[in-house]
Known about the structure:
Helix content is about 15%, strand content about 40%. The chain is mainly beta and about 140 residues long. It comes from Paenibacillus nasutitermitis.
Amino acid sequence: MKKYPFAAFCFALLLLFITGCQTDDSYLKEEALAQKRPDSENGVTIKTEKTEYPTSIKVIIVEIRNDSNKEYTTGIHVFLEKKLEDTWYEVPMKADSFTDEGIIHSPNKLSSLGLNISDLKYKLTPGEYRATIGGLAAPFEVVE
């Protein structure tokens, strides 16, 4: 009779240990549609404000430099991808859908968009990331 409660306790402890040891990377299931993305095209370049961020960062700022003589239009959202074993994966967002609002980036100007980490359905872990806007990507690292 005493063996059953002890076995149940050990099994529950094992389950807690297994789930506690999983990394947040298990949430990364969707491969990015484009595995290669440039950081610039047609005079427009994007980059993150910093090349390295701590895991505790709250907002990642993406700078958009439009050195062309034409307006450049983007959506209002910045998306995130993480590289795992040479494959880029989409970092899931809390929202399931997004508005089609747009922002015009004037010619020969620098503008920026922010990505609030609280909008992610994912806790940042160390590794190689890229912020994406349209078909462009701004690479950066996350460190402890």
